[in-house]
UniProtKB/TrEMBL annotation:
Name this polypeptide is given: phosphoglucomutase (alpha-D-glucose-1,6-bisphosphate-dependent)
Signal peptide: none
UniProt KW keywords: Carbohydrate metabolism, Glucose metabolism, Isomerase, Magnesium, Metal-binding, Phosphoprotein
Entry annotated with the keyword RNA-binding: no
Length: 584
């Protein structure tokens, strides 16, 4: 045991690195950028300096998705945490903890915050992305007030503080002393697994999985991300399923060379296996485990529908919600499917900007139980992050309950049942990745100017290939005033709402590491039952044409097709239908 005074804090002179502004969810850059001299140290120092209430004597959780550069970044954090007077660090074994598991640990250990080493769904490896995110003591992503402070500090940082410590062996769990720090290295899965066991009725899921004839087939794909061990603990060890029920479950620093984003394009390993083997329930999660995709044979559940369906079933079958659901919420571009559930159930519903951090205050105030985002994020107030594995288990719970009501129900049946009850929100998102930033900014400026021009509201916008036209009811830049603390977040996405209730939205992604990614979202609501079984792509075509025409996207960016299309029951990549028979 060493005396704290033996470990001298030293101050290292540094100069600012430009561009350390946290995006939608932390700072994400290429690994090579983080490897520059003092780059990571500057950002960690700024984070520690910006911690609400200071970091002296505090406890922090450190973990991440295990991507390339995580071990090095962890050692830097330990040296700077010691240099800044942090007293206790809780780390996942080998520096691995999913984002939801970090949130759960911060809450259950009453830590003062956490540092997450992840660029989420972005690819990893020496030539790809790394990321650092700070979460506050409620377990959720730091609010803008804190991230703005971090950025401001990075802009004129002159020094950082550290204790010169040798690298700590991160492979053994237990309690250690590391210089002046108390270190606890935890098993990444156990705390999180106990939380899920307290939320769900695993026996009911097991009963459905094992005592149904024929047995429902399940496939979970961790896309070589952090949820591999969590998936194994749940599907194999807890639910007693075969090894064949999980795939790509060994976390790898470069995600096996893949893109760990659970959508129809990047999670094609899952989609293909589900279709080929007639699997009833397929699910994937992303690099750091906060996103999810639900996909059964011939049935893709849009994230917007997924959260609405979970909200609708929660009280009925998930023990955590037995005493009632407090309120619901979605991000602005997410379809209004959850609003309709809220309305019919007499619940409050909130529309917040894109970013999970905007849900935290509502949850802390006891006004929000279940929320989601179109970007494959779904979660509840059990933690303060979106939670991919939670959503996947929620769907298993719903299917178990649906099968009690109507044996043989699959994902398609649950979807159809929902639409028959509430109507269907057709939704699609087009992603134009890594566009030239100047062109993307010009396109947004053009739209803003157009919105302000007289006569735009009330005008008719027509499609190119049909006679369809849409009357503009309103058009604006989304701004949000947090109902709890009154903080205002402006410029959160450009929307046009039409008189028939449909919408188009443009946003620049806040999670890319280079260039600008343009996201175009379109939504149309229908209560015409004859449309429910249709591929959304067809019904949304006129709206998409209007969006492309009004934004002059091709003119400003030179792009004539998106890189990824997310659409209910269909996926097109680079404009080409991947396999319509398979998808619809
Ligand atoms: C992050 C945030 C999400 C948000 C998403 C949006 O996701 O945590 O709340 O919806 O970014 O991404 P973009 O700005 O690119 O549209 P993640 O999974 O990357 O942490």
């Amino acid at each position: 045991m060493s005396n704290n005074s033996e470990f001298k804090r030293t101050t290292v002179q540094t100069t600012p690195h430009s561009g350390q502004k946290p995006g939608t969810s932390g700072l994400r850059k290429k690994v090579k950028v983080f490897q520059q001299k003092h780059y990571t140290e500057n950002f960690i120092q700024a984070t520690l300096s910006a911690m609400p209430g200071g970091c002296e004597g505090k406890t922090l959780v450190v973990g991440g998705d295990g991507r390339f550069f995580s071990p090095e970044a962890t050692q830097i954090i330990l040296r700077l945490a010691a240099g800044n007077g942090v007293s206790h660090i809780i780390i996942g074994q080998d520096s691995i903890l999913s984002t939801p598991a970090v949130s759960a640990l911060i809450r259950s250990k009453k830590a003062d915050g956490g540092i997450l080493l992840t660029a989420s769904h972005n690819p990893g490896g020496p030539n790809n992305d790394f990321g650092i995110k700070f979460n506050i003591s409620n377990g959720g992503p730091a609010p803008e007030e804190v991230t703005n402070k971090i950025y401001k500090i990075t802009e004129d940082i002159k020094e950082y503080h550290e204790v010169d410590l040798p690298d700590l062996d991160l492979s053994k769990t237990g309690e250690f002393t590391h210089g002046p720090l108390k270190i606890t290295i935890v098993d990444p899965v156990s705390n999180y697994l106990s939380l899920l066991q307290s939320i769900f009725d695993f026996d009911a899921i097991k009963e459905w999985l094992h005592n149904t004839n024929p047995k429902p087939t399940v496939l979970f794909d961790a896309l070589n991300g952090v949820t591999g061990p969590y998936g194994r603990a749940i599907f194999v060890d807890t639910l007693g399923l075969d090894e064949k029920s999980i795939q790509n479950c060994t976390p790898s620093p470069d995600f096996g060379g893949g893109h760990p984003d659970p959508n129809l394009t990047y999670a094609h390993t899952l989609v293909e296996a589900v279709e080929k083997n007639n699997i009833l329930f397929g699910a994937a999660s992303d690099g750091d485990g906060d996103r999810n995709m639900i996909y059964g044979k011939g049935a893709f559940v849009t994230p917007s529908d997924s959260v609405a369906i979970i909200a609708d079933w929660a009280e009925k079958c998930i023990p955590y919600f037995k005493s009632g659901v407090k309120g619901l919420a979605r991000s602005m571009p997410t379809s209004g499917a959850i609003d309709i559930v809220a309305k019919k159930r007499g619940l409050e519903v909130f529309e917040v900007p894109t970013g999970w951090k905007f849900f935290g205050n509502l949850m802390d105030a006891g006004r929000l139980s279940i929320c989601g985002e179109e970007s494959f994020g779904t979660g509840s107030d059990h933690i303060r992050e979106k939670d991919g594995v939670w959503a996947i288990v929620a769907w298993l719970q719903i299917l178990a309950a649906a099968n009690k009501e109507k044996p043989g129900s699959d994902i398609n049946d649950v979807l159809m049942m929902h639409w028959k009850k509430y109507g269907r929100s057709f939704f699609s998102r087009y992603d134009y990745e890594e566009c030239e930033s100047a062109g993307a900014e010009k396109m947004m400026a053009h739209l803003r100017e157009l919105f302000e021009s007289s006569g735009f509201v009330g005008s008719d916008l027509s499609a190119t290939s049909s006679s369809a036209s849409f009357k503009v009811a309103s058009a604006d830049d989304f701004s949000y005033t947090d109902p709890i603390d009154g903080s205002v977040s402006s410029k959160q996405g450009l929307y046009i709402k039409f008189e028939d209730g449909s919408r188009i939205i443009f946003r620049l992604s806040g999670t890319g590491s280079s260039g600008a990614t343009i996201r175009l979202y379109v939504e149309k609501y229908s209560q015409d039952e004859s449309e429910y079984g249709k591929d959304a792509q067809d019904g949304l075509k006129p709206l998409i044409e209007v969006a492309l025409k009004v934004s002059k996207l091709q003119e400003f960016t030179g792009r004539d097709k998106p890189d990824v299309i997310t659409v209910s029951r269909g996926a097109r990549v680079g404009g080409a239908r991947r396999d319509p028979d398979m998808m619809c």
